[in-house]
Amino acid sequence: MVSSIGRKRVVIIGGGIAGSVLAKSLQDHTDVYLIDPKEYFEISWASLRCIVEPAFAERTLINHSEYAPNAHIITSAATSITETEVTTANGRVISYDYLVIASGHDDKSEFTKKERIHHYKQDQQKIKSASSILIVGGGPVGVELAGEISVDFPDKKVTLVHRGSRLLEFVGEKASKKAHKWLNKKNVEIILEQSVNLNSKTNGVYHTSGGQSIIADCHFLCVGKPIASSWLKDTMLHNCLDNKGRLMVDENMRVKGYRNIFAVGDITDVKEMKQGYLAQMHSGVVAKSIKSLVNGKEKLEAYKGGPQMAIVSLGRKEAVAQISSMTMSGCLPGKMKSGDLFVSKTRKTLGVKST
């Protein structure tokens, strides 16, 4: 680790894509402290491939020390913030000149890479041992998992239950219909506008809110995870949270009302799709601003937004994509994402060798 004497200190809370890219960008310019409850960064949009192919996780899980060797890694959760310090669950008190909150969603992942890979192996074995599988949730996670299982384990009976009126409600209806049609062709049974009481399972039968019975040997819960901001409600930033628990930021990605506190990624109230590539753009803006500030310049970068694009993988070779107002499906968007799932690109961004 290079000497940090005389450098401004930047504390980054959260080791997802936004926090990790920012730590990578600032580690040679400032004294970076990265606070994260786990030892590694996970390429989260590739996690569903890891369920059916656990060996893939060797590429999607990257220890923080690999891409940020000059940063201080604090493996704990942040619990409190003052105007000058951050306190962690393991009792550390870390002062800062600049603070960046990038805590994303509340994800109770395993502490080490080894433990995370073991979890994926257990999930794969659960699929292998089952004849029928229930997936609860028809957002991108549920749809992609159904696609992965139906392609890699075509003999399994897959049922997907979603409480909404259509799949993939975060994109347009045309993309939703294409995904629905593709899953139907793979013999995935789709039940809409119903929920499942997972505690109601008796003798291998689950019951839906509409009175249907579903036979399944196991289930996967694929519903949205809450924003990881509940801990902020007891801090000085409690008035900076909107009614959805997101931090309100200005055009420079600074938390409103504060000159030296920024927020990036899904925890912000920026009106756009919550996508990894946009979180990286947030980090790019903040990195430039902090570099400018530590060099005595007051000019801050403004976040101008990025292209509104969503690609949902459908197995290993196909996908459905919505790019602005255009929708496409099949092998073309599949070539864009579904083979490598942007893993090589992400590793390159972090300066880690592709394995």
UniProtKB/TrEMBL annotation:
Keyword Signal: no
GO cellular component: cytoplasm
Domain spans labelled FAD/NAD(P)-binding: 9-280
Keywords: FAD, Flavoprotein, Oxidoreductase
An MF annotation (GO) of this entry: electron-transferring-flavoprotein dehydrogenase activity
Matches recorded under InterPro entries: FAD/NAD-bd_sf, FAD/NAD-binding_dom
SUPFAM superfamilies per record: FAD/NAD(P)-binding domain (SSF51905)
KW Flavoprotein (keyword) present: yes
Pfam families per the UniProt record, alphabetical: Pyr_redox_2
Protein family according to the UniProt entry: Belongs to the FAD-dependent oxidoreductase family.
Function: Putative FAD-dependent oxidoreductase.
Annotated protein name in UniProt: Oxidoreductase
Originating species: Lithospermum erythrorhizon
Organism ancestry: Eukaryota, Viridiplantae, Streptophyta, Embryophyta, Tracheophyta
